[in-house]
């Protein structure tokens, strides 16, 4: 979420530049953190695990924009950090001018073209982007693991010393900690370990295999520089050779469309498009970035059987807002200056007198209200009645509400609920960015034309009545006059609090609330904030991902007509066995009766093994002639407490498709399925090594074959699978 909000109110401060107040705050914070780490002996110089520290973050664009002040600041920051004497190197990412001894490092989807600003500095990749964050209403991004593995292998083959994934473990922006603004509560990032703590397969294990292959090549990599040999138009070999038993090679095919067959060391090697094969002994392939032989897991959101009981509602009272107003001012005030981020919500209230002679009161066209906002959303109420709403986006925070309004003769109350969706956390001098209704605000369509309301007297109320009453806590909720009744019989209306109770479901699978039926708001369980929710529908091209080419972030909306975020993580540690309090504040209007508590469960596992393509476990125990290296194995494993209940698909031959939609090819061993069923059904895990002998006669001699299997994992009896409520985008 960026810097703490109080920092922008330090007198004379200017963020991230050669500014005394900012540098004082930054130095105090950095010293505090370093001292905390030193006191626990956590730096490598003290025998601890920390080998690198970073000061500042991706400052390059700001440095260039600020010129001399930016360079002065970055030199100060480097000197300040180094002076803390941690005993480990300091790095700056995306900062080409990082002064010695600070090492400048690369962040990005690809960093194989990066070089540090001095030849004696190591080549560091501090953020290898495994995916991308999501914004409300934005595309759900994925990065295919084949492309990520290719980027890392390419970086290492060109002399890279260190790479670090961002993110390796996705997470959740609980409470109001999401920044941006407009960043979703989920920060899953398509990471190898997902938001819920489950491994995302095949991403996790395919990268793990990559790391093993690099580790097997370590002696050669650290002992010599590479010799580069052309193997074709798009193909190259990087050979690290420093003597007997210290030779490793990377064979690369940069063609994003076509596979290649290359000759290297008097042997032929097949290279899929956009891929690198790693040969830790310069002879046998241990790994190819495009050939995914590890397990693919399908995770679904399934019913827990837990009911949300005793729904009750409480309405925000618009009519009494003026009585609760804490301050008044002539003109419109910036929102964060008023709220100091104590709430996402700020009421702007004024009144307008309408003459009884106005034409629209006698059947003419209604006047139009125009409200210009600096962000991020606004709800408009006229005389206590909802009149419409509008909102911006992360790219375009500013927006204008324009809509007809119902005015009456005499005094009319105009109430604007301005809503923030996170503090800014990146951009040039974002402490100066503004939020809220800053105008102009005016009425069009009156007999006298336009009436400007911008510089009238406005009243302000920070937060909601329900927030002031602390409805989100068990104590506060018990003191309010909730209304019990059928949600189905209730008309949908904005600014409504909902309350229900539920018991914790059995098991240990991760949990989430399905909020697809709701609009926008916030949700708490037992007083703990799950975060902001907003069922803004995702946009995207809905096309299948391709791992080839310099794509990096894949723009893929994997479920058509679906909210950007539908499921909201509920930590089990926040739950009691019985009577858990769920409180939701809904801004727009939704159907709370359709909210469900789901469990995130592994349902299907798939795996491929390619003939003559190794498994890393086999490679590490192989003999020198490489005979064992060529053995490939399909490994399947269900989740804790599960076993393989059925085999959905199995084919040794030339199958096609992806997990969940495999198809038998022109070459197929007819007994594939029965053999796999005998070996795997009823087992928690199973391994099958490819050989013609277990499938009988070779189904297609002289054709490169693979074994492809899809299995069902469940706790149910043999032969039955779980009921799927709705497919997860994965």
From TrEMBL:
User: For this protein, what reaction is catalysed?
Assistant: Hydrolysis of terminal non-reducing beta-D-galactose residues in beta-D-galactosides
One GO term (biological process):
carbohydrate metabolic process
Lineage: superkingdom? Eukaryota
UniProt entry keywords in alphabetical sequence: Glycosidase, Hydrolase, Signal
**Annotated EC:** 3.2.1.23
Q: What GO MF terms are annotated? A: beta-galactosidase activity; carbohydrate binding
InterPro entries xref list: BetaGal_gal-bd, Galactose-bd-like_sf, GH, GHD, Gly_Hdrlase_35_cat, Glyco_hydro_35_CS, Glycoside_Hdrlase_35, Lectin_gal-bd_dom
Q: Which residues form the SUEL-type lectin domain?
A: 628-714
The record's annotation in SUPFAM superfamilies points to: (Trans)glycosidases, Galactose-binding domain-like
PANTHER family registered for this protein in UniProt:
BETA-GALACTOSIDASE RELATED (PTHR23421)
Say which family it is in: Belongs to the glycosyl hydrolase 35 family.
* Protein name as it appears in the record: Beta-galactosidase
């Amino acid at each position: 979420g960026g810097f703490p909000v109080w920092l922008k109110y330090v007198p004379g401060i200017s963020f991230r530049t050669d500014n005394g107040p900012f540098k004082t705050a930054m130095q105090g914070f950095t010293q505090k953190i370093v001292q905390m780490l030193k006191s626990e002996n956590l730096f490598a110089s003290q025998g601890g695990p920390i080998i690198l520290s970073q000061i500042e973050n991706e400052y390059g664009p700001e440095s260039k924009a600020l010129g001399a002040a930016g360079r002065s600041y970055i030199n100060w920051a480097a000197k300040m950090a180094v002076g803390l004497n941690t005993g480990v190197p300091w790095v700056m990412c995306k900062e080409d001018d990082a002064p010695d001894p600070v090492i400048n490092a690369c962040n990005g989807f690809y960093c194989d073209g990066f070089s540090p600003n001095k030849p004696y500095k190591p080549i560091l990749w501090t953020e290898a982007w495994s995916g991308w964050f999501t914004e409300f209403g934005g595309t759900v991004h994925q990065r295919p693991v084949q492309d990520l593995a290719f980027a890392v292998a390419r970086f290492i083959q060109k002399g890279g010393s260190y790479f670090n994934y961002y993110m390796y473990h996705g997470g959740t922006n609980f409470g109001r900690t999401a920044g941006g603004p407009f960043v979703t509560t989920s920060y899953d990032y398509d990471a190898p370990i997902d938001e819920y703590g489950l491994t995302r397969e095949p991403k996790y294990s395919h990268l793990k295999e990559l790391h093993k292959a690099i580790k097997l090549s370590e002696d050669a990599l650290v002992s010599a520089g590479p010799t580069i040999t052309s193997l074709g138009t798009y193909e190259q070999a990087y050979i690290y050779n420093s003597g007997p038993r210290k030779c490793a090679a990377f064979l690369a095919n940069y063609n994003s469309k076509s596979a290649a067959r290359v000759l290297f060391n008097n042997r032929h090697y097949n290279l899929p498009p956009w891929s690198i094969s790693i040969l830790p002994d310069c002879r046998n392939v241990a790994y190819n970035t495009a050939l995914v032989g590890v397990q693919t897991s399908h995770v679904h959101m399934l019913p827990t059987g837990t009911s949300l009981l005793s729904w009750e509602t409480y309405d925000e009272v618009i009519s009494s807002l003026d009585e609760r107003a804490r301050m008044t001012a002539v003109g419109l005030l910036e929102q964060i200056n008023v709220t100091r981020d104590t709430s996402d919500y700020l009421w702007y209230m004024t009144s307008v007198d309408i003459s009884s002679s106005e034409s629209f009161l006698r059947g003419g066209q209604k006047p139009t209200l125009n409200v210009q906002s600096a962000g991020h959303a606004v709800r408009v109420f006229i005389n206590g009645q909802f009149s419409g709403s509008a909102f911006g986006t992360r790219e375009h925070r500013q927006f204008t509400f324009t809509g007809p309004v119902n005015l009456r003769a005499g005094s009319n109350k105009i109430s604007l609920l301005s809503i923030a969706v996170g503090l800014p956390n990146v951009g040039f001098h974002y402490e100066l960015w503004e939020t809220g209704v800053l105008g102009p605000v005016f009425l069009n369509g009156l007999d006298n034309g336009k009436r400007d309301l911008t510089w009238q007297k406005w009243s302000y109320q920070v937060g909601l009545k329900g927030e002031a009453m602390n409805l989100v806590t068990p104590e506060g909720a018990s003191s309010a006059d909730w209304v019990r009744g059928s949600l189905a019989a209730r008309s949908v209306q904005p600014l409504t609090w909902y309350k229900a109770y539920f018991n914790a479901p059995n098991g240990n699978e991760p949990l989430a609330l399905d909020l697809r039926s709701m609009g926008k708001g916030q949700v708490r369980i037992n007083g703990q904030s799950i975060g902001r929710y907003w069922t803004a529908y995702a946009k995207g091209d809905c096309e299948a991902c391709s791992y080839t080419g310099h794509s990096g972030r894949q723009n893929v909306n994997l479920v058509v007509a679906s909210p950007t975020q539908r499921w909201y993580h509920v930590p089990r540690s926040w739950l009691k066995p019985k009577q858990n309090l769920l409180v939701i504040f809904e801004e727009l209007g939704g159907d709370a009766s359709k909210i469900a508590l789901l469990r995130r469960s592994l349902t299907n596992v798939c795996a491929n093994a390619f003939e003559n393509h190794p498994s890393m476990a086999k490679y590490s125990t192989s003999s020198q002639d490489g005979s064992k290296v060529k053995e490939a194995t399909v490994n399947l494993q269900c989740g804790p407490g599960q076993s393989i209940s059925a085999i959905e698909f199995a084919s040794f031959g030339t199958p096609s498709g992806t997990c969940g939609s495999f198809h038998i090819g022109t070459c197929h061993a007819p007994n594939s399925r029965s053999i796999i069923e005998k070996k795997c059904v009823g087992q928690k895990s199973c391994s099958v090594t490819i050989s013609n002998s277990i499938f009988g006669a070779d189904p297609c001699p002289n054709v490169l074959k693979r074994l492809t299997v899809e299995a069902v994992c469940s706790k149910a009896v043999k032969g039955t699978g779980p009921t799927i409520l709705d497919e997860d985008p994965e």
